[in-house]
Structure formats: structure tokens, C-alpha cells
Amino acid sequence: MFLLILSYVSLFAFIFLSIYKAVQYGKMPMHGRLDLYPIPKEKGKGHYGGSYYEEVEWWKKPRETSLLEEIIDMLKEMLFIKKLFDNQRPLWWISYSLHLGIYLLFAWTALLFIGAITELAGLAMESGHWWAVLVYYTTFLTGTIGGLLVAFGSGALFLKRYLVPSFKKYTTVQEYFNLVFIFAVAATGLMVWTSDPGFNYGRHIAKSMLTFRPIEADAILSIHIILLGLLLIYIPLTKMSHYVGKYFSFHKVLWDNDPNLPGSEIDKKIKQAAGFKPKNNWSAPHYQPEPPKTQDM
Hints:
This protein is 64% helix and 0% strand. It is mainly alpha-helical. The protein has one domain (2-266).
């Protein structure tokens, strides 16, 4: 029952901690807006880097924005890491291997549950039904390619950060640990896969979670489940949760060029942010908390 409970806890912890972090980002005071053009939401102008402000007497005219264009541009970065591709292509191949592998493994996880439901409905792979066959082979492809890419990407990034001086200089102990942790999960998963290339164990775990039955696992599978469960809990608590912050960094920082007019929502937010007092003391000389005032005797 321990593995079953850990599977529940880790899955729900990953989801709810990610949502909690998103809520916390949403409650933060207004960030320094960079207005980094081109801004995709500028309808009809984003493609050439234009702006609403280039119009004569822009404040008198209705403003047209496109949330769809903004989301499309965000997805280019989130799904393909476009900026890294444009500016650091040698590093992009390694980093994208890791990220693409993670995306495929998320799809693989969903397919495991779809496959489990399919088998519980009486459509096993052996039945030859087209749906069962499609789910089986799609699961095989996403799981195999995803696992290999994650193992390669995390291992290669670790070596690059450790062996290349310009990267090593800025790599922290935690970043090394994160990559080793991910590699360990991928490696143990591939070890299990070598004896079960069809991922029957994965569908067994999914069926156990759907039917509340204990998970049967040997030593290496147990280690893999434990490591994976701990990783899912760990990720939202670290800088690896940047998948949550991407939207806010683009929408609220880089592309937030809404006009600051008197009495507007932006004006209210700026005044509110101006009164924000940091709770933590900084060691920087330009910011030192004022000493407490004492009354003269």
C-alpha cells in the first residue's frame, strides 16, 4: 500500500503545489514592466514590433489587443524554447532533449491511464481492437523516446555544466543535484523498461490507482516509483517550477505595455506597488532598513 499512497500523494502534490505557486505569482505586487518589443498582443503591429503608442493621439482611440497572438508566441517558447534556439543553438539541442522528453513523458503518463481504462473496459491489446492497438503503440513510442531523451538531456546538461568553465562558474550545487535527480529517475525507469518494453507495469500502476488496489513491484520498480514520487513533490518547490512562471514573466513583465493613464487600473497598481515594503532585509548597501526610532529621555 505504501507505493500506492505515495503515487496518490506525489501526483496530487505536484498538481496542487503548481496551482498554489501560480496563485502566489498572481498575488505578487506589480513587477518592473520592461515593454520588450515586439509585443505579440499588439494587434496588427506585433509582427513588425509596432505599438499602439505610435498612433497619433493614441489615448483617444480604442485599443485592439490579441490574447491569441500572445498565447501563440508564449507556446513557441514553452514548447520549443525558441529564444535559446535563436541565441544559443549548441546548448538548445541538449536542453530541448530534456524538455521534449519531459513533454513526451507527460503524454505517456496520460496514455498509461487511457490504456488502463481501456483494459478495464475489456479491450486488451490481445483483442486486436484498433483503439487498444493504437493506445499500446502510442504509449510505447512516447515512453521509449521520452525516457531516452530525458536521460540523455539531463546527463549531457550535467556534463556541460561541470566541464565547460563558462557554465560551471554559474552552476550551483542545487542545479547539479536537480540534474542528477532527474537522471536517476530516468535511468531507473529505463532499467525497468528493458525487461518490460510494452510498459505493462505502467498500466498496472495506473489500474491500481484507478481501482485502489496495492501496487505489485519488484525492487527496481519500487525504487523507480519512490524516486519519481519524490521528484514530483520536489519540482514545484524549486526553480524547476519555471513552467508556472513563464506566463507571468511574459504577460506581466515583458509584454505589459498597457498605458498608465490617471485613474486607470495600471495607475492603481503602481501606487499600490510603490507602498510595498519587503519583508526580508537585504545586505546591499543601497538598501538598509531604517533603525527603530527611540524617544528622547
